[in-house]
Design brief:
The protein is an alpha/beta fold and 217 residues long. It is 34% helix and 20% strand. The protein contains 7 helices and 8 strands; from the N terminus they run βαβαβαβαββαβαβα. The protein has an 8-stranded parallel beta sheet with strand order 1-8-7-6-5-4-3-2. α2 (49-55) packs parallel to α3 (72-82) and α3 packs parallel to α4. It starts with a strand and ends with a helix. Bound molecules: D-xylitol-5-phosphate and zinc ion. D-xylitol-5-phosphate binds at residues 8, 10-11, 33, 35, 66, 142, 144-149, 178-181, 198-202.
Length: 217
């Protein structure tokens, strides 16, 4: 188990994105979380391939790209080529585990890690056949689409279940949690076995961001 932190740029000040990136890099964050939305899989839009390619090489953190898009097959590859170190797509956006497996293979062929995400209403069972193939599982603790929502405790049971499955079978797969993470929900997620915590509105725009990052570890 790890205690990595992944600041979500969704809550960052886009008019000074490089400063925001440098700020969290200097505080020792291991991952940089990019939220990609296509206006179809979720109603909003956010970061694009161009954004990732402009900033991916300007810092040393792992570019952790979460694609909330309806056609991950095409999009995943574009982000891998744009400098993503890991691309995480949603199981709800693909028809079957076999199709998901093909996307995972195509990411790996480009030397990019692959993650699979489940929304609050999706069971761990839906991605169980992929656990030996993916590098990461992203458990959504809010409905994907926007920041600043309240943490849904249903995520905790799923983290625990994933932790058990991963440890029992020795899978090389990290557990990441995204949505409504703050000092209190972080503690609960760590206790259940989360490796990476994504946080947007809890971190960006606060004077004490340094201390806040520490509370997530
Ligand atoms: C939601 C995004 C999250 C979001 C988290 O769809 O995937 O990464 O930025 O925001 P907070 O931390 O504010 O809940
Ligand atoms: Zn996200």
């Amino acid at each position: 188990m790890n205690n990595f932190v992944a600041p979500s740029l969704l809550a960052a000040d886009k008019t000074k994105l490089l400063d925001e990136i440098k700020l969290v890099e200097n505080e020792g964050c291991e991952y940089l979380h990019w939220d990609v939305m296509d206006g179809v899989f979720v109603p909003n839009t956010s970061y694009t391939v161009e954004d990732v390619s402009s900033f991916a090489k300007k810092h040393k953190m792992i570019n952790d790209v979460h694609i909330m898009v309806a056609n991950p097959k095409e999009e995943a590859i574009k982000f891998a080529k744009a400098g993503a170190d890991i691309v995480t797509f949603h199981i709800e956006a693909v028809n079957c585990p076999v199709c998901a497996g093909k996307i995972i293979n195509s990411l790996h062929a480009l030397n990019c890690k692959a993650g699979i995400s489940i929304k609050p209403g999706t069971k761990v069972k839906a991605i169980e056949p992929l656990l030996d193939k993916v590098d990461l599982v992203l458990v959504m603790s809010v409905e994907p689409g926007k920041g600043g929502q309240k943490f849904m405790p249903v995520a905790l049971r799923k983290i625990k279940k994933l932790r058990r499955l991963i440890d029992k079978n020795n899978y090389n797969c990290l557990i990441e949690v995204d949505g409504g993470i703050n000092n209190e929900t972080a503690k609960k997620c760590r206790k259940c076995g989360a490796d990476i915590l994504v946080a947007g509105s809890y971190l960006f725009g606060h004077e004490d961001i340094k201390e806040r990052i520490q509370t997530l570890r």
